[in-house]
Input
Amino acid sequence: MPSASQTPPGPGMPDLAPRQRAMARAGQASADELLAALARAGAAPEAEDLRAPETGLVMVRGRIGGDGRPFNAGEATVTRAAVRLPGGETGFAYHLGRDRARARLAAILDAHWQRPEARPALEAALAEIAGRRVEAAQRAARKAAATRVTFFTLARGED
Amino acid sequence: MYVAVKGGEAAIDNAHRLLAEVRRGDPAVPELTVAQIREQMRLLVDRVMTEGSLYDPDLAALALKQARGDVVEAVFLVRAYRTTLPRFGATEPVDTGAMTLARRISATFKDLPGGQVLGPTFDYTHRLVDFGLADGDSRDRSPDPAAEAEPEADAAACPRVTDLLGQAGLLEPSPPDAGAPVGDLTREPVDYPVDRAVRLQALARGDEGFLLALGYSTQRGYGRTHPFVGEIRVGAVDLEFTPEELGFPVGLGTVDLTECQMINQFHGHGAVPPQFTRGYGLVFGQGERKAMAMALVDRSLRAAELGEAVAVPAQDQEFVLAHCDSLQATGFVEHMKLPHYVDFQAELDLVRRLRAEHAARAAAPPPESDESPLREAAE
Output
């Protein structure tokens, strides 16, 4: 993933990867974890609503054969929020599920993340949250690995 | 024609109160929580998500609680709920090749990169009732923790089996993504014949029992396709969505999916040498039976495309797609229990008139004709 230093943000060409990563990590966090992250950055969990948190649908697409033409596999509930800080930064969140409070907190976090003075503390908090998720995923992978099987075919010759 | 009826408000209210009481069951037994259903009846929750065509485990669990465990009723609740919500758009197509695998098996290749991972499966269990799970015996006892092992080096990259076989040209490739609009049966009426994308959407939300029976019929000879399970994989994939106001994709979170790649017997013509053909299944959560049935029926519905005769139900897309939706089917079957008094009165009047005419003819002297009594009786 390119870092902000490799691709300096410029008008019309911002480097989005760090923000996308932060938004994705915030999306995996619980409301309590988001509150703790904001507190760590000294940011109040408050902002003006650009759009009140709203639950809606996205159509989940698959691909025929896994890698071919897209098709509509079914929908998923998604909750979105958009906020603005007094300084003008706008924050957004789109999360699976119907938790409006959590989406609003994530949008507030996204807005504060754009403030250079708040970003390091938020990044540190998000990295810890992501670390916990990675640990859980590794544990699941270890349990799956214990069920890895090797099948043998047996020749049923008469000799 | 259905003519509305009025009345019965108090009785209907009371019936609903009674339903709530019966739903709760014996008050001496603790009430189920939605979280308990979501965690411990997970395959049922997955089925309601798949056939409700809405990924939301808590909502599906709540619907099951409200529906007293009736799958079709829970699907009805989920589908009704979705109609109240706006649609923000469509996700990027999921990459099942990058799935975080909980399970992955192939019945066609025993040695494949990434290996065969059994995961949590009923396969190879003895199907003996475990009385240890009965109330009281298990309440204070957790199961032994699952075994753990260090994942092997190749476990991080598990290509789809179809990618491996496809490289040698032995397997037909997936239909290419030409950027064409993706048909959506929830937005446009289905106009037969429909393309494979719309068929897969219909099959994905179709009733598991109906599709299982149809898939089974193809195995028993009604449109034989000689299937093998190339691969079944179960696990989590990331969902990405590009909101209009942002213009870049954001991660929505992960969803659990089951994918089935069915490999079927050869096909070839003129310029194309013989190669395996394919059927595809993709469902929410862990739903292997459904994914397999979907893949079998997907392949059989490709009969016309592959130059096969369309002769049996599983090859007839209008028959399959128009009848595979449990909600549509139950709506038409179950509406018959609602009052049809005016309809039936009209039918009663008609049958009385026919009987009167019949009696009058029987009483009259036989006409001078050679018409047989049998034909008259059959009128």
About this structure: Residues 17-133 of chain A form one domain.
